[in-house]
Amino acid sequence: MENRKIIELLQEMTLAEKIGQLSQTTGEHYIGKVDSEMVETGPDFPAHMLEGDTLYTMGSIIGVSSAGITNRIQRQYLERSRLKVPLLFMHDAIHGYKTIFPIPLGLSCTWDERILQQVAEDTASELRATGIHVNFSPMVDLVRDSRWGRVMESFGEDHLLSGNLGRAMIRGYQKGEHGVIADSGVAACLKHFAAYGAGIGGKDYNAVDMSWREFYAYYGKPYEIALQEKPKFVMSSFNSFSGIPVTASEEMMKEILRGTYQFDEIIISDWGAVSELQNHRIAADGKEAAELALKAGIDIEMVSTLYLQHYEEILANNPALLQEIDAAVLKILQFKNELGLFENPYADEDLEHEVLLNPRFLENAKNAAKRSCVLLKNEQMLPIKQEYKNIIIVGPFAGSNQLLGNWKCKGSFDDVVTLPEGMKRADESLNLQVYETLKDCPASRLEQCDFIVVAIGEQWELSGEGHSSVNIELESSQQQLIREVKQTNKPYACICFSGRPLALQNIIDDIPALLWCWYPGTQAGNAIAELITGRGTPTGKLTMSFPRHSSQAPIYYNEYSTGRPANESSYSSRYQDCEIGPLFPFGHGLTYTDTQYSGFRISRHDLTDGQELTISFEVSNPSKYDYDETVILYIEDLVSRAVRPIREMKKYRVISVPAYQTVSVQMTLSVDDFRYLDHQLQQTIEPGKFNIYINDLQTPIASVEYR
Ligand code: BGC
After folding, report:
1. Does ligand 1 come within 6 angstroms of the Cβ of 270?
2. Residues 676, 645: contact at Cβ < 8 Å?
């Protein structure tokens, strides 16, 4: 439709119809609850206004799946609405829709933007075939505290990596350049703006309070980077920030998101967050809550219905808001037009069957799952030797199909390849026995067995939204199982599933080899089997530090220098009852043979404005596997006027290293890469020396002087 017609449509709309476009509800109000096809991801809100004609002014629907159902709702809506503006359907396909990929934290351990973009492209194809137009993803909230259940949805503790991976996913979902949505693409919704991952104490929905320097240098950075890919939507976060709930913050929404970060598309609240301004106790009633959110610039109210209930009174007191409302409605209409919904509002139900669980997506899911696993420890136990044919798999996850992780969307456990299934596919000659506990295993079987795989972890429901935990240690019964296995004197290795880093200090010495699999998704068993039977090598690297104990969280690699750096003294910045540092640091991850780095060269030892610096070196793969190696470059500023982190990641690259080959790598830094945000919020660099590190956080490979 021509833009002129969209403007005419806007002019024809009543105020009630405009407010409808700014309101989002669930599908049950139209066709009743269809359990398997409608999900609710938050508490119920009273259905005030959700009846009669008002229902047929609404702009969008959340949480409905399947082409048959989106079409039924759309058809009914279009029959009954006056102006016949098609509905938008929005959903949370956080790591896949029907084909489930690894959880985002797992995906981030690939460090590979190509993989994340592909995951998003495949997810978009499934969503669009189903009639869904907007995906509430990616989440780029920076995280440092694994007690927070939503770390599973994040890309870890580094702001640059989080921003870049979020950017790659936006590119994949939208499939078009510069914010254009291609035919089989969906709009990305970047979330949760802002700093939702910094809730005090790792408690979900909790208040956030930090300096502006901390915000602009770290917590705000991932959004700033990802916004460059022009997502169509941004979701505001539940939390307050320095005392003001973000949903009511003109400063956050208008000055920073719209102003500094130049986002000019659609802002949607989180689930019920407009109404929850009353719980924050900054709004005395629903009218005040709606007015605060409208003034802050929240274009669409998700699920609660306060805009619908109170707009007349609000606009009577504040007629100037009408202009902002018109601008928001226009954007929504233009977006619907861009998707071609006025011409074709329905999904193709035949196409949906062809697209879902397409073999290509399953292959990509297997590859992503393989690449996301991180080998944390290996005392020459993995891969399982080829001559070991009698294998026991034991533990709560031994034969489990519960490997999708939270936010599994339409993923079905029946579609999951379990570990025994994957092992059998990898090697038919294996004699596999699967037990939940060692006690279930007859003594004779144990006697005959060559190798034990211990499949442990945290149940998937224990991470995700609302699932903050004080205890992030492995269940004691599972620790007990590991000790029992150790006593058998058989060779063994552990594979672990979880949505967060767990605290393993109490058990790590009893684990000779540990492969961290996160929740790998639909292709779990195939991916893990290929790795542990040696048909490929793990290559994932951690994007979040593993604490030793629960109360060592938050823990992250780029903490600030202090006056008393951690050391053996009792007057140093450390916990006295715990070893210094994480159990496994950011960037850690082994392969089956050590990748070798050599020949470090630096193009110059002095640096001034306008110059660049190149670090060159060789990476050798002494193994029989072709693989992708992640190279991470950190800097350390030896003296600065404002305190800086001990290490700062500035560059990373994923490079292909064929078996038995050596490849040359060059990484280039500009003067800007050495700058930092100082205490007056200025990008600064002072003369002095910087150390450079590659992969290793302890030993510099070179240094350079800025003059
Ligand atoms: C979550 C969002 C999600 C929304 C819609 C909220 O509870 O915080 O991440 O997109 O629900 O399902």
Report:
1. yes
2. no
Alpha-carbon span 139 to 151, nearest angstrom:
10
Give the mean pLDDT of the chain. 97
Alpha helices in 175-305 (DSSP H): 212-214, 221-227, 250, 286-296
Backbone angles phi, psi at 218, to 5 degrees: -125, -70
- Report how far residue 315's alpha carbon sits from residue 321's, in angstroms, rounded to the nearest whole number: 7
Residue 569 is predicted with a pLDDT of 93
**Which CATH code, of 3.40.47.10, 3.40.50.1100, 3.40.50.1700, 3.30.10.20, is assigned to 368-552?**
3.40.50.1700
pLDDT in tens, 528-538: 999 999 999 99
Closest atom of ligand 1 to CA, residue 192 = 9
The rounded Å distance from CA 234 to ligand 1 centre is 12
CATH assignment of 3-353, given 3.20.20.300, 3.40.50.300, 3.30.70.100, 3.20.20.140? Answer: 3.20.20.300
Q: Give the distance (Å) from ligand 1 centre to CA of residue 90.
A: 11
pLDDT range class, residue 178, cuts 50, 70, 90? confident
Mean pLDDT score, 496-514: 98
Q: What interhelical angle do 524-532 and 359-372 show, nearest 10? A: 50
Helix, strand, or coil (residue 150)? helix
Residue with tokens 């359907």: 89
Arithmetic mean of pLDDT, 29-36: 94
Average pLDDT over residues 480-505: 98
Residue whose CA is closest, atom 6 of ligand 1? 271
Confidence of residue 142 (pLDDT cuts 50, 70, 90): very high
